[in-house]
Amino acid sequence: MFAAMVAKAQNWIVRAPGPVERIEACFSGRAFAPHRHDTYAIGVTLSGVQSFRYRGSARHSLPGQILVLHPDEVHDGYAGDDGAFRYRTAYLAPRDFQRVLDGRPLPFVKGGISDDPRLQAPVRALLDDCADATPPLGWDDALFDLVTALEDVCGGSRALGRTNREAAQTARDCIDARLADPPTLGELDAATGQDRWQLSRDFRALFGTSPYRYLVLRRLDKARGLMLGGASPADAAYACGFADQSHFGRQFKQAFGMTPRAWSACVAHDRSRPGPEPSAN
């Protein structure tokens, strides 16, 4: 079993190897505070009752049900009964979705839980064997099948109208290149030739979050990679440009639902397993 090495731990996270961030995890009680990240969280409940609040309502996922949480939507996580819940999740960047969508809006699954049989095969292809470095069928094939199925389940696609995809992509590239010295909104305006408010709307439509949130999450991704490599939260915060450790801790919890130290403790048992490199959205 993938998680056999941590069977004695009450709460644990095992990160799969490979370029796609995939985890298997087990938690009891209240696992995650309310938080939001700028990736899709696409997973399957393996055992127990995986409960969470999402878009104003409590949701309860039973074994075999699929979760599709949209980027930048606030959610928490807790056991829906007295036992533990175990699950697998892949965190997929909207920029990867856009390789398939080609400018179409990101698909949205209302309620965050789906029993639609059209999602079973592509989600299982991505998550069934988390011990493999490469998702079954290859990453590109798995991505194409998953995004196509999600579009189908969500009722197809519609044109983005006046959305300027090139401007949003240019802004994203500018932010990626300057994490340590991020561009101002004025500089993004100048680089893209787009009014900042229209640029923000276009950026959200294509990448699921605002330019500022995108910058913060890329810094947090880098910090998680440093902590996986053994850096302390304080050193990671300094290296990634956060004002101080307190600011870093608040931003980390808002993004991942737990403090940096709590997250490090959950993955500490797995330091010998190579995890995925932090990926840009």
Give short descriptive properties of this protein.
281 residues, 39% helix, alpha+beta, Jelly Rolls, 6-stranded antiparallel sheet
Q: Could you explain the architecture of this structure?
A:
The protein has ten helices and ten strands. Among the domains are: 4-153, Jelly Rolls, CATH 2.60.120; 165-208, no CATH class. The chain is of the alpha+beta class and 281 residues long. Strand 5 (50-54) and strand 6 (57-61) form a beta hairpin.
CATH architecture of the domain at 4-153: Sandwich
- Strand order of the biggest β-sheet: 1-2-9-4-7-10
Reported for the largest beta sheet, the result is:
6 strands, antiparallel
CATH superfamily caption of the domain at 4-153: Jelly Rolls
Secondary structure elements and pairings:
Layout: E1 12-15, E2 21-28, E3 30-35, E4 40-47, E5 50-54, E6 57-61, E7 66-69, E8 75-79, E9 84-92, H1 94-101, E10 113-114, H2 120-127, H3 139-153, H4 165-177, H5 185-192, H6 196-207, H7 211-228, H8 233-239, H9 245-256, H10 260-267
Antiparallel strand pairs: 1-2, 2-9, 3-8, 4-7, 4-9, 5-6, 5-8, 7-10
Helix pairs in contact: 1-3, 2-3, 4-6, 4-7, 7-8
